[in-house]
Amino acid sequence: MIYDELIKEISKDKVLMNENMSKHTSFKVGGMADFFVEVQNVQELIYVLKLAKSLRIKTCIIGNGSNVIVKDTGFRGIIIKLNFKHMKIEKDKIAVGAGVPVALLSEFTYRSGISGYEFLGGIPGTVGGAVKMNAGAYGSEIKDVLLETVILDEIDNGIHDVLMKNIIMSIKDEITGQLIITTHNTLLLEILPKENIYILSTDYNGNKRINSIKEYGIKIQKNNNARDLYFKGVFGGIPTTDYIDFEEIKYALECNEGTADGEET
């Protein structure tokens, strides 16, 4: 069933079942993945993510598999390889797919007469992984050349490049390096400097605002860190439960479970 759904949008030769992941990692070790899917564009990625979510299947996204080890027992779910290989010069910027090897990007910029990317030449992996870990060498880092990132929302898998642009424009005068935005990983609040944290909140009327946590004038300490304060609602970045009908939510979940079992609701 899963295979049949995958090949509705993905080419058959890009969907593999019970694939040995040692073929796709730099260490050449690892167990079997239930499904290994190569996606060629954002539309295919969104399709696979939505399908996996609807079927409650785990996913893992990789690039070239550099420095990746899959445990011997394998991966129960879908491993998605990003095969976005586009590189395009747009005036004073370069649009690059997350699946482009960073060494290839370095060579492309060199041949195009663009400087500043030479440090990428000896780094393994792809652009997506380099951005995630802020890869660097010889005193330079990916944040030094990164201008804009396309985000896939964790909830509905929508493309939020417009959201990213608006957020950057609203605080661009304060940005001095890389900007990281996460919607759910609150653990970052424990390790990031407070001057690097902004809270996006929505009021009851749907109005959105972005505030640096410095604006709240609260002293942040180890025993009173930003994450604890966030969950206490100090920054207004979490929903209140005053008007949530939990019985209605419970009923909706029960209906969905019935649908998954093939029952009519």
Number of helices: 7
Summarize the amount of helix as a percent range. Answer: 25-40%
> What portion of residues belong to β-strands?
15-25%
Query: Secondary-structure element order, as H and E?
Result: HEEHEEEEHHEEHEEHH
For the biggest sheet, the summary is: 4 strands, mixed
- Give Rg in angstroms: 22 Å
Q: Average pLDDT value?
A: 78
Query: How many β-strand stretches?
Result: 10
Largest sheet, spatial ordering of strands: 1-2-4-3
How would you explain this protein's 3D organization?
With 265 residues, the protein is α/β, with parallel strands linked by helices. It is built from seven helices and ten strands. The radius of gyration is 22 Å and the shape is globular.
Helix and strand topology:
Layout lengths: L1 H5 L8 E6 L11 E8 L2 H13 L4 E4 L12 E8 L4 E4 L2 E4 L5 H10 L15 H7 L2 E2 L2 E2 L19 H11 L26 E5 L5 E5 L13 H6 L14 H15 L5
Parallel strand pairs: 2-4, 3-4
Antiparallel strand pairs: 1-2, 5-6, 7-8, 9-10
Tags for this entry?
single chain; 265 residues; alpha/beta; four-stranded mixed sheet; two-stranded antiparallel sheet; 10 strands
In brief:
The protein has 265 residues and is of the alpha/beta class. Helices cover 25% and strands 18% of the residues. It contains seven helices and ten strands.
